[in-house]
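#lab-general

N.A. 3:47 PM
ok so I finally got the sequence cleaned up, no stray characters, all 335 residues accounted for. can someone with queue access submit it? mine expired

B.Y. 3:52 PM
send it over

N.A. 3:53 PM
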Amino acid sequence: MTQTKIVIAGAGSIGCYVGGRLASGGAHVHFLARARVKNDLDKYGLTLSDWTGYHAQLAPSQFHVTTDESVLADADIICVCVKSKDTQAMAQSIVQSGNHHATIFSFQNGMSNSETLQNILPQHTILPVMVPYNVIYQDKGHFHCATQGALYCQDHPKALPLKTLAEHANLGFELKPDMLNIMWGKLLLNLNNPVNALSGMPLKQQLETRGYRQIYAQCLKEGLQVLKAANITPGQVAAVPVGVIPYILALPDFLFKRVAQKMLAIDPTARSSMWEDLQNKRPVEVDYISGEIVALGKRVNIATPMNERLIRLVKQAQAAGLGSPNFSPQQILNG
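B.Y. 4:20 PM
back already:
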């Protein structure tokens, strides 16, 4: 029987971790990667770990990595893991490969990637996947998952092969009937990403600092007001409903640490991908996270000043090209 061919289209931190976990369970995984990543994986193989103590080592013979987009042609499953700005280009690459049968899963931040893929690939089934965790590249082919959670995917018969392969790899993968609301819930949680990127701190330390939490809480309040005006109910993707989180964030530090133990159950070294993008001088995705709230706010006539401020400050930091500005809460508020 022919093995299901999986192509990880965009082998960054999330793509390498998810694809590596699938390969560790015996899946037939191909990584479509940039030359830098290919060189590392060819030389070192893949090392996978998480903050609970999971560890796996994959030799280069246990997967295939290439920079050649022709690998897409006969893929059965394509996991799109590129940044949102590259979604259209990846969709065009799939068109040019001649692939007409693959099920395509979008493992991306933001709200519009699945729609963008579907518009360019109308003959394909496109299924959104919510990735709850943070993955850090630690050098020499080592990808470390620093937060917890299971992948959520749109419930569809064509999702079952990937779900089965994920289960073989002990990779959490749950099917959900309404991914749109879940993606909005995830986007609200991601409104902390620019706060973390500007702070320069690990996530746990940043969340334990009340001044940063108050900024994050204001972003969430704006987001919740905008979604309510747009008649959108965000799905629950955290231990508590997202509408409760601003009140938890506002607690004094000693109470917050008691009440928010699950929120703080993360690797002390974990940081947001937006911080990592600033450090590595890569384009940030703030327009596809905070920008979604600002754009929807304008459509429903709800002001979003804190989210707008963070977008401006993150873009200024990106333009400066010096990594995180390591702003204090007051510097963010005065910026």
